[in-house]
Amino acid sequence: MYDYECHEHDVVVIGAGGAGLRAAIEASSMGVSVALVCKSMLGKAHTVMAEGGAAAALANKDSRDSWKTHFRDTMKGGKYLNDWRMARIHAQEAPDRIRELETWGAVFDRTREGRINQRNFGGHTYPRLAHIGDATGLEIIRTLQEKGVHMGMDVFMEFTVCRLFTSSGRISGCLAYDRQRGRAHVFKAKTIVLATGGITRCWSVCSGSWEYTGDGHALAYWTGAEMGDMEFVQFHPTGMIWPPSVRGILVTEGVRGEGGMLRNSEGDRFMFNYVPEMFRKEFADTEEEALAWVEEVISDKQATNRRPPELLTRDVVAKAINSEKAAGRASEHGGAYLNISWRPADQVRKKLPGMYHQFKELAGVDITKQAMEVGPTAHYVMGGVKVDPESQESTVPGLYAAGESATGLHGANRLGGNSLSDLVTFGRRAGLYASKAASAMDTWGEIEEDEIQNGIDHMMAPLNREGGENPAAIVHDLREMMQEKVGIIRTREQLVEALDDLEALRVRSQSCSPGGGVIYNPGWHQALELEAMIDVSQMCALAALEREESRGGHTRDDFPTPDHDSWGKVNSVITKDSDGNMKIEHRSYPPIPDELKQLLDSDDLDGDS
Amino acid sequence: MMKKQVTFRVFRSHTGERPYASHPRTESSVGKMSDYEVEYDEGMVVLDVIHRIQAEHAPDLACRWNCKAGKCGSCSAEVNGKSRLMCMTRMSDIMEETPENEPVTVRPMQGFPLIRDLVTDVSWAYEMNKKMVPVNGPDKLDWEFNQNEADRIQEFRQCIECMLCVNTCHVIREHEKFDDFAGPRFFVRMAGLEMHPLDTESRIPQIKEDFGIGYCNITRCCTEVCPAGINITDNAIIPLKERVVTEYYDPIAMIARKIGIKR
Ligand SMILES: Cc1cc2nc3c(=O)[nH]c(=O)nc-3n(C[C@H](O)[C@H](O)[C@H](O)COP(=O)(O)OP(=O)(O)OC[C@H]3O[C@@H](n4cnc5c(N)ncnc54)[C@H](O)[C@@H]3O)c2cc1C
Ligand code: SF4
Ligand code: SF4
Ligand code: FES
Predict the structure, then answer these.
(1) Average pLDDT value for chain A
(2) For an interface test with A, which of B38, B57, B65, B66 has the most A Cβ atoms less than 10 Å from its Cβ?
(3) CA distances from A507 to A530, B45, B250 (A)
């Protein structure tokens, strides 16, 4: 019999990034008891790294903007695989969610009139991203943290959840280990909100932190929840590529929003050659026009020129850099040159202080004088837990999901800035509905002691083994494999191989032995995270194998074009069947009502009646 | 690519050691320095070398990190005796300052109680956080103010809560005034609140009485180590000290305070 500590709360929120904090704040304000459980320290979650801004149609900078255009841009960027109901709610509610942050202490950059300033980003028709320099995530997480600590919630930092419990089909709690003390904890809960972020650590070149091992995705899947869109992984076009130790670290799209230009080794501004048909009307076709747009934007005028092709959606730019490399026109270390040094140095330092600092300190490059070298990096997963668009409840009753761990809003490709606004919009909704549901219950579900003991036994297993591999070696091999076989460009053979390789990795993971004790032992933690990484990687590879077309964050070399008539209308859904096997099917969202359909570009909807 | 050899002398807790070793502590009572020989490549930072030690020699070596880009403030440690972020400290710079044939030393922050290896207990900071009186402004969603007003406080909002400044400040490091002194990080936080253009709260009495700003004797050690480049002493602490003086020792302000007017 293992010993453990037991806690009881109405609502347990797992994850303290933007989504989790916003959910916990909302739930606390409803008067229920809330536990906020997170595997790193408060205020350090991935959200802190977000740079460019949060998208909301405030129309402060360009009065032509409205939720309708934001809705249209989100659907278009997502290649119409978005849940249109979430895209509408998001576009309508994001402005108030952003304004509200200022009443809690956030201080965004201002327009000349003293309102929240907004910057241009890829795929957004108008300047739409509320920001503070290039440290917007820091501002948002700090604001929510500062609000949250005064709301009476119990915070459990450096606690990692490794299993969810259900009782008669309903969520009833979770099991966690405490990294600092190495103890097991059982949290009884009436409802649980998953806000665990993403999975990009499964690739060797990524912009994510050690936390991005897909724990929440795996927890939901193990508990029987439906997982959607797992083939769609966003490779951000501009990660650092040199020196090798910084490979993958993000270079914000804000650089391009501020006028950064992409060139290949021959000095060509190659993005002009990669404008897809569906975007042709909206983008400049000469350098002169692109420059005129930047000049207008910098001088605070409404843009009358069309925007530079560097601001195409991320999937397009990432693939373009890849193609230039394949054609032998890569920059010195295998990427492209991104140059903002044509703008005055003080403006670059003011608008992009983080980037200035990052390149100076980590690469010895002064971006006010030199070009940056950039290349694609695994950045965001559009796929995740399938949720009800209003309440964010998953298909497991009592289990909610929000933020990067949920799916629906972004379809096949997320627009920059739409994540931070997603977090506060749907984080709030998840907290609201989870607390309402909890209030309607008079007691907690019973968790079987056997299940708890099993869970702890499983948790301790790596420490009880000896003579096995260092889990770091298996994690390394998994990441290299995913990079090679489930990367930006995929083929059938490679995906089939990837699925086989994952089985081999699974076998290795079951005998790894990190050694050491229970107190703050990263080797042990990594051994436990591997399980999630392998299952999440399998979801991606399986969904990618099935989708025989190219769309957004999923590109198949053997099926290079989009197939609007069939694949363009269905989303993948993964579940665990009763034998524990991974099963996939494809399903559509309900048809989009006419009044919303009118907002979309009819040309894009070919094949649509 | 150039590969070079380096010796890292890293603090390791004794195995089986109870966590939360008391504070102050003597190093040898809780652990010892251990040497690791590792190769490093061009462009690497100290955190990369620590990760390599974990991968090749000691999977259970405890350290905190998240962003590896100087944005989250998790990886604070003392490298060659100086408080810094491991992820923003380049090996080329470290090798330059380390005498030939000497190891590079890495210790946890000495100002905070130890948990294990390079990980310390900074829960004090989270308790302090709760004592900050939040912003109190107009009761509407749209707040308007100008960029120059924002500029004054945005510097303070850049704080990544790495606690390097607190670790360096002698009031805490040597005198352990954890209970009577808010420490540089929280003066930065309070400066941001006090200088907020729309805030109507007064925190000056609290800053003087509970947060002990008087203990600070403007040594500027905190400013020197701040990885976010915040001018902690000159832009946050000194203006707050001035406000305390005006509030408490300027007779007109004293009357105003008694009858409840905030200036
Ligand atoms: C460098 C970078 C820049 C970005 N810039 C932007 C931008 O400008 N605009 C934008 O909109 N988006 C941006 N994004 C994307 C955006 O930051 C993320 O998608 C978003 O922050 C995710 O927030 P979240 O609340 O879902 O999760 P996170 O902030 O990742 O938080 C996850 C939380 O879950 C916890 N957790 C995870 N697993 C467990 C577990 N097993 N047990 C307990 N807790 C757990 C973690 O500790 C953490 O607290 C950027 C991303 C990166 C990497
Ligand atoms: S200036 Fe003040 S707060 Fe900063 S280190 Fe010196 S005494 Fe401490
Ligand atoms: S003020 Fe600077 S040194 Fe202090 S916690 Fe903040 S970022 Fe770190
Ligand atoms: S890991 Fe985030 S600051 Fe070093």
Answers:
(1) 95
(2) B66
(3) 11, 33, 74
